[in-house]
Amino acid sequence: MSTDLEMPGFRLDGRTALVTGAGRGLGAAIAEGYAACGAQVMLLGRTRSYLDDVAQKISASGGQAGVIECDVTEDKQLRSAIADLPKLDILVNNAGTNFPEPFVEVSDEHLDTMIDLNVRACFVAAQAAVKKMLEDDARTDKGGSVINMSSQMGHVGSPNRTVYCMTKHALEGLTKAMAVELAPQNIRVNSIGPTFTDTPLMRKVVDTAEKRDFIMSRIPMGKLATLGDIAAAAVYLASPAASMITGTHLVVDGGWTAQ
Question: What's this model's pTM, rounded to 2 decimal places?
Answer without folding.
Answer: 0.94
